[in-house]
């Protein structure tokens, strides 16, 4: 378990530090970046938010709030509080045309910065729990690496970066074209900013 938590945070930190991110869209308070490597595509959504970084961290690290702003989260419940910094959640997503609704079992690891220049981190990855086997009603899906890094800008503002790494298998859900998917990412980012502020 300790290894899983460590590798969860390390994977997100590694993804964030990768060279070769390409910016695909810029709006007032949102920038969308992509990174492609083989059949793995990663997204980074950078949001400027007018609240202190610790407050954004507290709101974003509790995934039960996620339904309030992310329409991809239909339900979200805590299955297990492993420690103060780690929780395992069960999440369901609404069905997309022609597909069954999806479900996820995810480990969410949260870390406060050790130094002032470091970001707050909320890392997410799929895990397997014997107690929650795949069910025929849902298509069990996997999150390779996702999460938030929250950087302090000032005492009352921060930059929230959301990362998500997907394999080509998940791409159809994100819409056949990137324009469509960046629109959906954009809408979700706007909802996130509205929720935080």
From TrEMBL:
The segment(s) forming the START domain are: 18-166
Q: Which Pfam families match?
A: START
- Check the record and name the SMART domains matching this protein: START (SM00234)
GO MF terms held by the record: lipid binding
Question: GO CC terms on record?
Answer: cytoplasm
Superkingdom of origin: Eukaryota
Q: Which InterPro entries match?
A: START-like_dom_sf, START_lipid-bd_dom, START_lipid_transfer
Give the protein name, as stated in the record.
Answer: ACO12 thioesterase
Organism of provenance: Smithornis capensis
The UniProt gene name for this protein comes to Acot12_1
